[in-house]
Amino acid sequence: MGGQKAFTLIELMVVVVVIGVIGMIAYPSVMRVLRGMEDD
User: Fold this and answer.
1) What is the spatial distance between Cα 10 and Cα 6, in angstroms, rounded to a whole number?
2) Per-residue pLDDT of the chain (40 residues; tens, 9 = 90+)
3) Keyword set for this entry (predicted)?
């Protein structure tokens, strides 16, 4: 494995994009749950 410990720029960008996509998908659901809790 070449002893490469640091993330490359490409790997870092991929991780950021994946987290962003997951956040965009999860955000509406989380907001709906929080809004539902406020109604109680």
Assistant:
1) 11
2) 566 677 788 999 999 999 999 999 999 999 999 999 877 6
3) Membrane, Transmembrane, Transmembrane helix
Name every residue whose Cβ is closer than 8 Å to that of residue 3 and which is 6 or more positions away in sequence.
none
Place of tokens 């109680």: 40
Q: Rounded distance, CA 40 to CA 36, Å? A: 7
> To which residue do tokens 């809004």 refer?
35
DSSP per-residue letters across the chain: -TT--SPPHHHHHHHHHHHHHHHHHHHHHHHHHHHHHHH-
